[in-house]
Amino acid sequence: MRAAAGMQREYYERTAHAYDAEHVREGDEHHLALKHMGGFFDVLGISSVLDVGCGTGRGLKYFLREKRGVTVHGVEPVAALIEQAVKANLIPANLITKGSGEALPFADQAFDAVFECGVLHHVKDPNRIVREMMRVSRKAVFLSDENRFAHGSPFSRWAKLLLYKAGVFRGAYRLKTLGKGYRLSEGDGLAYSYSVFDSCEALSEWADRVILVPTDDVTAASVFHPLLTSFHVLLCAVRDRGDADTVVRNEGFGR
Fold first, then answer.
1. How far is residue 132 from each of residues 39, 108, 115, 137, 188, measured CA to CA in Å?
2. Is residue 166 part of a domain?
3. pTM score > 0.90 for this model?
4. What is the number of alpha carbons within 13 Å of residue 107 lying toward its C-beta?
5. Would you state the pLDDT for residue 2?
6. Domain that holds residue 126
7. Three-class SS string for 122-190?
8. Residue 106 lies in a domain
9. Strand, helix or coil at 96?
10. What is the spatial distance between Cα 11 and Cα 173, in angstroms, rounded to a whole number?
11. Which of 1, 33, 70, 168 has a CA-to-CA distance to 26 between 20 and 30 Å?
12. Per-residue b/e over 22-42, b at no fewer than 16 CB within 10 Å?
């Protein structure tokens, strides 16, 4: 596991200077996810937010511009990406903490909301990070990430879903990748097979409701949308009890 994590870190160190040019596009799936998150911030009265794996600061930059009343902070393990965030994207250095999502250096319920954009498919145990996100959040957790079940032919999508439900998908994927359990590409570095649906159960136990928002260019009239149709999905896990519950009811989102 350390070897794989080291490979991904080296990829980011090597490509940090060109990361935004290769991965950040106005109107892409993560940009749309950030816009939807901003709407939830208004409804839930979010005043502080943490970006886990903030990279070159895209999410921080967006909320600093669009949500001036919200305190933002990021955590990122790769020094080269932090340097790019500060020097190229002009993110104040004090807004980023060098650290790992597997052990967030913050107290329980330190932030109103916590989010990640495209981080979880790069780690071997994504739900370890999700559990940390739940620990430090008071009101909401947002995952903007991949959904393996909507990738490939219709046969491939159903096959992956059936293998997953049978509890043998991970083993099958290791066979497919000749024992590695991950894939390598110049465009994305080291990546695992992940779906935001993998984290639904854990987040459903923590949240009062889980909302799924397709964020890619798919128009699908299907009862399996977005499970089998959208490769990029924003998962919104909301705790609307207590003070937040009053806000949600007033906005018409109550149960």
1. 24, 9, 11, 9, 24
2. no
3. yes
4. 1
5. 55
6. 2-148+193-249
7. HCCCHHHHHHHHHHHEEEEEEEEEEEHHHCCCHHHHHHHHHHHHCCCHHHHHHHHCCCCCCEEECCCEE
8. yes
9. strand
10. 23
11. 70
12. ebbeeeebbbbbbebbbebbe
Q: Which amino acid is at 163?
A: L
- Of the candidates 109, 127, 143, 145, the one whose C-alpha atom is nearest the C-alpha of residue 244 is 109
The closest of 236, 244, 216, 240 to 114, measured between CA atoms, is 236
| Domain contains 240 | yes
Per residue in 190-234, pLDDT tens?
999 999 999 999 999 999 999 999 999 877 778 899 999 999 999
Report helix, strand or coil for 64: helix
In this structure, is residue 115 part of a structural domain?
A: yes
Q: How many domains in the chain?
A: 1
- Whether the CB-CB separation of 235 and 142 falls below 8 Å is answered with yes
C-beta separation of 118 from 59 below 8 A? no
